[in-house]
Amino acid sequence: MLMPSIFRENLLDDFFGYPLRRQNYDSGMHEMMKTDVKDMGHAYEMTMSLPGVKKEDIRAEIKEGYLTVSASSNSEKDEKDSQGKYIRRERYLGSCSRSFYVGREVTQEDIKAKFADGVLTLMIPRKEAAPAVEENKYISIEG
Asked: Residue 22: what are its φ and ψ, rounded to 5°?
C-alpha cells in the first residue's frame, strides 16, 4: 500500500507516479554526461559518460574559447505478441550538452577525440595565453 511520505520532495509523489519516475531515474539516464578531467601536464584528458548514445549523435564544437559537447539519444523498445499486437511500446528522445572553458588559444584542430563503449575521450592541449604585447603610442610634438 502506498502511503504519502514526508521524506520525499512532494507529498503527492506517490499519487502521481513517483515509483515510475524512480524506475526511469535508476535506468542510467542520471549517469549521462558525467565528466572526469585529468591534468596530464602537457594536456587535459576529459572522459565523458554517454551511455546509449551513438557516435553519429555526438557533436563537439569550440567557439569563443568554450568547448561544447552535445549528445542526443533516440531509442525505441517494442514488444509484440504472436499476433503482432503491442504488449509494450516505449520510446525515449532526449538531448543534453555541456560546455567547458578551454581558452581562446585552443582550436578544433588541437583537440583529439575518441568514442568507444559509451565513453567520449577528449585530449585538449594545454596552451598558455599569449601575453599581450604592450604597444607604445607616442604623441607627436610639433614645434
From this structure: -65, -40
